[in-house]
Amino acid sequence: xxxxxxxxxxxxxxxxxxxxxxxxxxxxxxxxxxxxxxxxxxxxxxxxxxxxxxxxxxxxxxxxxxxxxxxxxxxxxxxxxxxxxxxxxxxxxxx
Length: 95
What we know:
This protein is mostly helical. The protein has helices at 5-14, 24-41, 73-77; strands at 83-84, 87-88. The chain has a domain at 5-41. It is flat.
């Protein structure tokens, strides 16, 4: 896919970026260079390669899935300035 000055002008308009007319052609050339580099990545054989989340391999540390004492409504609502029926009462913000 080749990008021309018309496409750069349209994208700049959609992104609300003010771009001078004399900068459209150089930007199109830069974007075409970036797209060409991305196309080179399609040539790399990644069959059987696991996706990476980081360049440093670290095993995920998981906590034990243990049931805890979760029914602490009174303790939580004790910090609220106002509460009603087990919920926080806040000022109305939408009319």
